[in-house]
Design a protein that fits this description.
Layout (H helix, E strand, L loop, with lengths): L4 H21 L1 E4 L5 E4 L6 E3 L2 H9 L6 E3 L17 E2 L2 E2 L1 H6 L4 E5 L5 H9 L4 E4 L4 H15 L2 H21 L6 E6 L13 H8 L2 E3 L13 H7 L3 E4 L8 H5 L7 H4 L3 E3 L12 H17 L2
Parallel strand pairs: 3-4, 3-7, 7-8, 9-10, 9-11, 11-12
Antiparallel strand pairs: 1-2, 5-6
Helix pairs in contact: 5-6
Length: 297
């Protein structure tokens, strides 16, 4: 048997040579479900399963690697040119798989779990994200850029976001408090608590969320609860980027402080309701609205 050993040794050396570079090129990141996702090399064909993920990938310098998105992925404008693989909550798996992605960016609570699990069963890597803090947005940028091979752009964008957000927080650190209702939906009437990312923006701007202590991230409320809380400001996004009809509905209650002082303010929903870099722009607008309310006392 001695005459076989050199052949076995040579085979092992050859295998080591093949495996070594692949291992060296492997890229890994921890997603927002605390699972490590590893790729043999930087992703070249990426599918984003939420409008927010699409925005973050472009911001991370990986837009050119996107091969598909889901409906309502409308920012940046280049995203509108990409094919859709359905809605975030109902995916066209056949079309998605046919695109042969080497990475799919999922939405933790927004995508249907059974469909995402089927993707993984087909050995398609899925990296799930759902940033719920300011740092979570910056971290998602960095992790996405690592998987896409665009780390310099991702790190730069993340650091700029952190710095500008810190400056905004510092400017409003000593602002007089303003009681706020943020309306996230109209029927049923829904708001956010202090743990929600929008709730954190309200706090950053010196606002006091009148429903901040509720246990659910997005609790249902009723008009009677709003009348009892009597917020000084009502903020709403509405259906679409220009639809302010939700605010007009509150004018039926002239006894509300927010109505009496004309503190009914609109902020385009995509600037606050997507966990992306544009949250900074939405935060600036929200802070400006609260400053207007302070001036109307």
């Amino acid at each position: 048997m001695a005459h076989r050993l050199p052949g076995v040794g040579l085979l092992l050396v050859m295998l080591a040579g093949l495996v070594g570079p692949a291992a060296a090129d492997e890229v890994c990141a921890i997603d927002d479900t605390d699972r490590e996702v590893c790729l043999a090399a930087s992703a070249e064909r990426i599918v984003a399963l939420s409008p927010g993920a699409t925005e973050l990938l472009f911001a991370a310098g990986a837009g050119e690697r996107l091969v598909a998105v889901v409906d309502h992925s409308d920012y940046p404008p280049e995203a509108k040119k990409l094919p859709s693989v359905g809605n975030h909550d109902r995916l066209d798996l056949e079309r998605l798989v046919a695109l042969q992605p080497d990475l799919v960016i999922g939405w933790v609570t927004g995508n249907p779990a059974e469909q995402v699990e089927r993707l993984e069963g087909l050995r398609v890597p899925v990296f799930r994200i759902e940033p719920r803090t300011f740092e979570g947005i910056a971290s998602a940028l960095e992790r996405l850029s690592r998987l896409a091979g665009s780390e310099p752009q991702g790190r730069l964008a993340a650091e700029r976001f952190r710095q500008e957000l810190a400056e905004l927080a510092a400017r409003h650190a000593d602002a007089p408090p303003v009681t706020v209702l943020y309306q996230v939906w109209d029927s049923p009437l829904m708001t956010v608590n202090d743990e929600h990312l929008i709730g954190k923006v309200v706090t950053l701007c010196g606002g006091v969320n009148v429903f901040g202590g509720l246990s659910r991230l997005v609790p249902r409320i009723d008009e009677e609860a709003v009348l009892a809380a009597d917020p000084e400001v009502i903020l709403a996004g509405g259906r679409g980027e220009e639809n302010r009809s939700w605010l007009d509905a509150w004018k039926r209650f002239p006894e509300l402080t927010a109505v009496a002082r004309d503190n009914l303010f609109f902020v385009p929903p995509s600037l606050l309701q997507r966990p992306t870099l544009r949250l900074l722009e939405g935060s600036r607008l929200l802070c400006e609205r609260l400053e207007v309310a302070r001036g109307r006392r």
